[in-house]
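Narrative of activities, Objective 1.

The group set out to show that a structural description can be obtained from nothing but a protein's sequence at a throughput compatible with the screening campaign. Below is one input-output pair from the validation batch, recorded exactly as produced.
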Amino acid sequence: MILPIVGYGDPVLRKKGEDIPKDMPNLKQIVADMYETMYNAYGVGLAAPQVGLAIRLFIVDTKPFSDDEDLPKEEQEQLANFKKTFINPVMLKEEGEEWGFNEGCLSIPEVREDVYRHEKITIEYYDEDFNKHTDVYDGLIARVIQHEYDHIEGILFTDKISSLKKRLIQKKLQNIMEGKTRPDYKMKFIAKKGR
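Output recorded for this entry:
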């Protein structure tokens, strides 16, 4: 089922996600719905807070990035085949040089800004079957994971840009909160609540 994506300004996007118990009811269905929602919105990642759930869960599928012909063939193949569910993740390490990339977010449509993130990460997490993993990622995969991990910590990519850039996008952010933005996917805006 395609879920509405929560828009900028909703308090759930600022909550730190709760750990998910192993016996959480409907977890597999939530994950399946999140993948369907992400694909419908042409995203490469989606965190549970973005569908209104303050839990430590996010999904990533970097296949859309694999079309970039400027990338080495090996990296294109990695991106084409990277699809993962992260449950109760813990970022163990962020290292390497910080590099900029123009990021966007399904909860903040029509806003894109350069964000600087570490090149390499080490993350511990559980998969959908609650098997524990500790993995190291770099490049675009690491970046997408860091972006989604921030969501379950209550952090948005707009928190990582300069105060000048924040002022420049203020009107766009206000429009999102007021429900004046019209992306081509289903959204739930804070101003529309209670109407």
